[in-house]
Amino acid sequence: MSFHETPPVTIGESTYDVRFAGPDGGTPVMLLHGFPETSLSWSAVAPLLADAGLRVIAPDQRGYSPGARLPEVSDYATEVLADDAIALADALEIRSFHLVGHDWGAAVAWVAAAKHADRLHSLTAVSVPHLAAYGAALMNDPDQQQRAAYIGLLRQEGKAEHLLLEDGGERLKAMYGDAVPAEQAAAYIAHLSEPGALTAALNWYRAMTADLSSLPAVTVPTTYVWSDQDIAIGRVPAEQCHEFVDADYRFVELGGVTHWIPEQAPGALAKAIIDRVRA
């Protein structure tokens, strides 16, 4: 089934570009992308979910949608981003749904699950574990500390934008390696090269605070998908994730797969999502 855009969805004073797939009456599943990507990251996953009868909803999130590029760093606090997911469901008249997030989308999804458990049937978090597990590893695990060193650069206003976009976005392109198809990587870079787009995306990093490490355990059925070749997330927080889920929990480890799971292993990821939804 096709994975297509419709007219933007209005939330408050902003508008969000959203891609859909699957039958209108299907079980709703919302997919939240990561950095530096867009909802296109789900292009290979969404048709598989749609073929399973699910109604896929994949927004370009705050800052990525041109109609939702707000000016202040505080506009991109993780709690605000999580509230956006709920507001999008409200705008689409969806009371409860399954939530999936990759990378930063997973961080947002964890917060949404902690704050809005009554709205979610389940959570599938991809790459990024529960933020308390991640925060503990940042404090105590030298391996995770080294893996997260790049975040300091991304929080530097102006410098990060210059380095990532110079030479036609070569540093962004290098981040994807061979895991993301060249055409898709080019689409991401073109999108983030729009006026204000990269700054808005980087503001997600600049707005985050240490408070996220104290996020309470989630109480919705959860699957966590991690890949053993992820350069950003090490094994220690991945294996501690279960400590922060007070509900049915599944840990899916993908061998030989990098951080870019939606693009590199769409079949395995779709299966994990479908299994969680059907459970």
Walk me through the structure.
This protein is α/β, with parallel strands linked by helices and 279 residues long. The chain has a single domain, classed as Rossmann fold, CATH 3.40.50. It is 42% helix and 18% strand. It is built from twelve helices and ten strands. It has helices at residues 46-51, 78-91, 104-115, 131-140, 142-147, 150-154, 159-176, 182-192, 197-207, 235-240, 261-264, 266-278; strands at 4-5, 9-11, 14-16, 18-21, 27-32, 54-59, 97-102, 120-126, 222-227, 249-254. The strands form two sheets. The chain has an eight-stranded mixed sheet with strand order 1-4-6-5-7-8-9-10. It has a two-stranded antiparallel ribbon with strand order 2-3. The chain is globular and about 45 Å long. The chain starts with a strand and ends with a helix. The relative contact order is 0.16.
Number of strands: 10
Q: Could you describe the largest sheet, including whether it forms a barrel? A: 8 strands, mixed
What's the CATH superfamily, by name? Alpha/Beta hydrolase fold, catalytic domain
What is the top-level CATH class? Alpha Beta
What are the low-pLDDT stretches, counting only 5+ consecutive residues below 50? Answer: none
> Alpha-carbon distance between the termini?
23 Å
Structural class given helices, strands, pairing? alpha/beta
Number of domains: 1
* Cα radius of gyration in angstroms: 17 Å
CATH A-level architecture:
3-Layer(aba) Sandwich
Measured as a percent range, the helix fraction is 40-55%
- Total helix count? 12
CATH topology: Rossmann fold
Order of helices and strands: EEEEEHEHEHEHHHHHHEHEHH
